[in-house]
Amino acid sequence: MQRKILIPKDAPPPTTYYSLGLRVGPMLYTSGQTSRDKSGQLVGSDDPTQQAEQAFTNLSKVLGEGEMGYRDIVRINLFIRAISELKAILAVMERFLEGNRPSLSIVIVENLANPAYRLEVEAVAWQDENEG
Length: 132
Description:
Radius of gyration: 14 Å
Structural class: alpha+beta
Strand content: 25-35%
Number of strands: 6
Shape: globular
Largest sheet: 6 strands, mixed
Number of helices: 2
Order of helices and strands: EEEHEHEE
């Protein structure tokens, strides 16, 4: 089974030694995507909607590098800092998923790798090997 490390050129660079995603055969696993832009700068400061839009945009770049899209996601893990921001973040997620309803875990955390992050999203995607 072929293994491909995914580090899209138009995505924010990894902050240490890891891949933004990994495609192994029909499966794609992403690292946690945050609200950094291509240059590595934080987007949205304290705005959970803007941060979610950037995180899901970054997720789409990793999926695209692995020749997949939002329709292929089968699992999402969502880490958020404040339960009060959940509704806004889920609204952004639903817009990106366009009707796909993957399994989902939501975890409320005290902090993320950068204290300015309001959320982090990671995904698992699967694509039928007969599809392209």
